[in-house]
Design brief:
The chain is an alpha/beta fold and about 325 residues long. Helix content is about 40%, strand content about 15%. It has an eight-stranded mixed beta sheet, sandwiched between helices. The chain is globular, with a radius of gyration of 19 Å.
Length: about 325
């Protein structure tokens, strides 16, 4: 068992019927609900699925084609001129491919942070191999206690498919917002709430706790069902797998494993995410993929681009929070 990560250091040092659906998190920020049961999920990487090991395995497939797809995915929200000369914070860097994409698109500096030591090492390796040694730093850390100066702000804060895996999604989103410079951009991707969220949360917890030898039959069954769905939709399953890298430069099999094991797990409707961020000074500029599926074989991520204005009136926000919870 890997030691709990409580110290943060560099690797060298070692988004309308949402409220009726399951998985809403309504914990107030005023401390009126006991969150002690979530503390280990928030702080101890050993309570999480081994995202870093999965990203390390994926990283072996990173090539120029995948890098270009990652750059194209980033440019769905920000043009190269929006990125050039800007500071970029990648919260939950994983394989490092989107940190690399930001650098390639002209970011002034990239700060890549992940709670998993394997992800930090993989990010560093990816950047060293494809970007040299300048313009970035790779840090081991937790979104709730970032290894950064307290007043450090960034022009762009990017967190794709990460904050719903922290054990306290709403607090994590708030922490991300706090790191955006006034006038800066926040890009996040969050699982859409579906009617099967409760099932998938239980599955992920069991998968994460299961010995690895017992996981592979689950992976096989899930992959087979996923490909059958593709086939019944009139598409070619083989083509689906081979062309999957056209989606953000990702890998089909590694994304399947990531879905099955992605614990901790939370989700939200597009309305909830938008309301939450806009109540905290953000303004939605663009969103993609905000129509939820049934969720039988999984929930997709909705992607959001917010422009963050000056800090909101906290007294208004706290009053709103007491009435509606953190997702309001």
């Amino acid at each position: 068992m890997r030691p709990a990560v409580y110290a943060y250091q560099s690797v060298q040092e070692q988004r309308e019927n949402a409220d009726t659906l399951p998985c809403a998190v309504t914990t107030p920020l005023d401390g009126s609900t006991d969150m002690s049961s979530n503390e280990s999920l928030k702080e101890d990487v050993n309570t999480h699925f081994e995202f870093g090991e999965n990203w390390a395995a994926y990283s072996a497939s990173i090539d120029q084609r995948r890098i270009l797809e990652a750059e194209a995915a980033l440019q769905q929200f920000l043009s190269a001129s929006d990125i050039a000369g800007r500071t970029f914070l990648d919260l939950g860097s994983g394989s490092g491919i989107h940190s690399l994409a930001a650098l390639n698109l002209g970011a002034k500096t990239v700060t890549a942070v992940d709670i998993d030591p394997h992800s930090v090492a993989t990010t560093r390796r990816t950047l060293e191999e494809h970007a040299g040694s300048n313009g970035y730093e790779c840090l081991l850390g937790n979104v709730f206690d970032l290894p950064l100066d307290e007043d450090a702000k960034f022009d762009i804060v990017y967190s794709w498919g990460v904050l719903h895996h922290t054990g306290d999604m709403w607090s994590a989103i708030e922490k991300a917002i706090e790191r955006v410079r006034p006038g800066g951009k926040l890009i996040i991707a969050i699982y859409l709430k579906t009617r099967f969220c409760g099932f998938w949360k239980a599955e992920k917890k069991l998968f994460t706790r299961a010995p690895k030898v017992l996981r592979w039959p689950i992976v096989g069954i899930y992959c087979a069902l996923s490909l059958l769905r593709v086939l019944f939709s009139g598409k070619n399953p083989i083509k689906h797998m081979t062309e999957y890298s056209n989606y953000r430069g990702m890998s089909w099999i590694h994304d399947c494993i990531d879905w099955l094991g992605g614990y901790p797990y939370e989700s939200a409707s597009a309305a909830e995410i938008t309301r939450f961020v806009e109540n905290r000074g953000g303004k939605l500029e663009k969103s993609i993929g905000t129509t939820p599926s049934i969720g039988l074989l999984g929930a997709g991520c909705a992607e959001y681009l917010f422009r963050c204005r000056d800090a909101p009136d906290l007294s208004q926000r706290n009053e709103f929070t007491k009435t509606h919870g953190t997702h309001g």
